[in-house]
Specification:
By secondary structure, the chain is an alpha+beta fold. It contains 8 helices and 5 strands. Helices cover 57% and strands 16% of the residues. The relative contact order is 0.11.
Length: 237
């Protein structure tokens, strides 16, 4: 069952109330796309383009048509969502039947029953830019008032996505640090076992671990864990 339209103020409030500890980045992106669809009075489909390292992908979408129209632009290396993401501006295609900047893309859009589109740049972080894309089935669907609403929505969305991106990056870094510390602890334990058995120093113990790792085509951490488990009597020698 389609969700009812939402008042713009309600959409802005919902974006601002997202609890980053309870949702991941993908969920925030999907919520942005769904709210963009519901914030307008006419039926539209929405998507969010993200560009990292010069490569674009559709991170969230409300309909396969929106995703396809985005991906055709990535394949061709040009189009309104890419231009909006690169410039940070609003790129409007008011009538796809008379669009000559991207004729092949516009022709496919018409075949999909679309009449107009609007893409708004989303500055998220230095390494990540994007665009909010909205596709309508009628030509000239986006008047001045509609564009203003979407621009305001996009500014709220950019803040929400920047915060989510930062939170996600920080959480990933924390997880990687925990894993690195756990790996180091296991390796230090294994080195201690080897030092006790071989009567050697720390450097020689690590060299032995590395040699076993290379010979068995296993990670040093896995070799160390097996040695620790064996010493603890939890695995076969």
């Amino acid at each position: 069952m389609p969700r009812l339209p939402i008042d713009p103020a309600g959409a802005f409030a919902e974006l601002g109330s997202i609890k980053l500890a309870e949702v991941n980045l993908d969920e925030v992106l999907q919520r942005v796309a769904e709210l963009a669809k519901r914030v307008l009075p006419m039926p539209v489909e929405a998507s969010v383009t993200l560009i990292r390292g010069g490569v674009g992908h559709t991170a969230a979408f409300t309909n396969e048509v929106a995703r396809e129209m985005d991906e055709r632009q990535y394949a061709q290396g040009r189009g309104p969502c890419l231009e909006a993401a690169a410039s940070g501006d609003v790129v409007s295609v008011p009538d796809l039947a008379h669009e000559d900047r991207w004729p092949e893309w516009a022709d496919r859009a018409r075949q999909q029953g679309l009449g107009s589109s609007l893409s708004i740049g989303l500055p998220i972080q230095e390494a990540v830019v994007g665009a909010l894309n909205v596709y309508a089935h009628t030509a000239r669907a986006f008047d001045h008032e509609t564009v203003t609403v979407l621009e305001t929505f996009a500014s709220y969305a950019a803040v929400a996505l920047s915060n989510a991106q930062l939170y996600d990056s920080t959480a990933n870094l924390a997880r990687q640090m925990r894993e690195a510390m756990a790996n180091r602890a296991v390796i230090e334990q294994a080195k201690g076992i080897i030092m006790g058995e071989r009567r050697c120093g720390p450097a020689d113990a690590f060299a032995i671990l590395s040699k076993v790792s290379q010979d068995s085509n296993r990670k040093v951490r896995d070799v160390a864990q097996a040695l620790v488990d064996r010493a603890a009597g939890t695995s076969e020698a």
